[in-house]
């Protein structure tokens, strides 16, 4: 069954700065993501990738700069954050499922409370998304009864019940056992094929090279290199990118 995608939204990030006290985490980031494009953010831990992603959804407030998500200027003090966030699905490293609710209830609570959908409509939409991620048969289970990979697939289904125009993924496979990573990446690959706009923070270089339209390498709060995935990962031009990929792709240094 093919994945259905709402009209995708583009993202424009201009000269974004973010500090925590004296620690400047983002030092003037500018990145454009076109509607329907998949952009992977790569780089060492602490380079600012997750902070950048959280600024797009205004989970973090930047100190300066401008972010536009579709029709919304996310950094406008008067922006309707609730309306903007309804168009954005976000999947975190940890699954953030409600442990006391079933899989189906986890996937219907937001459409019912935020979109005011009737219970039957919300359940119908949730079951459709659970079917797309291959978990409709586990709709009555609690999160603790699922594997990590299954919980992350539920988290993706939950995000998709809101019919977002943009999906943000913050290292969605980092907490998973190796044998379950492929299932989650497969779902993300299907979303990309269907035309979803996606910004993905990832250490999965194979996925980035296969699925991303562009790859952005960040280091110490700046964009060092960006371009087509094959170019940045296959033949990076910047020494810092080359060093990072050497360590990631050949961790034993052999």
TrEMBL record:
UniProt main location, coarse: membrane
CDD domains per UniProt: ABC_HisP_GlnQ
Membrane topology, from the record: Peripheral membrane protein
SMART domains membership: AAA
Official protein name in the record: ABC-type polar-amino-acid transporter
Organism (species): Nesterenkonia sedimenti
SUPFAM superfamilies: P-loop containing nucleoside triphosphate hydrolases
Gene Ontology, cellular component aspect: plasma membrane
Catalytic activity of the protein: a polar amino acid(out) + ATP + H2O = a polar amino acid(in) + ADP + phosphate + H(+)
